[in-house]
Design a protein that fits this description.
42% helix, 4-stranded mixed sheet, 4 strands
Amino acid sequence: MFVAKYLGRSRYSELDDNLKNFARLKASLAGVDLDRDPHVLLFNVEGTASYYVIFEEEVESVEDVERLLKKDMGARLSRDSRERVERILNS
């Protein structure tokens, strides 16, 4: 199983063009309205050039994040990333 590393949180509008491509694809799949400039959690799948985007409105807990990562990328959160994501979602 791959390991996903949490890179940070930002608004959609703050992403660079390459990451916006990932976000647009994910938004179309998740039914997220990008015109609202949603918050994005960004991950890198270690050992690959793949990025994964999760919109905060898609999840309520770190378990939801882990479920999406496993389902979509076959990845799990690293221990330190899990702790960071948990803090973000609980703030």
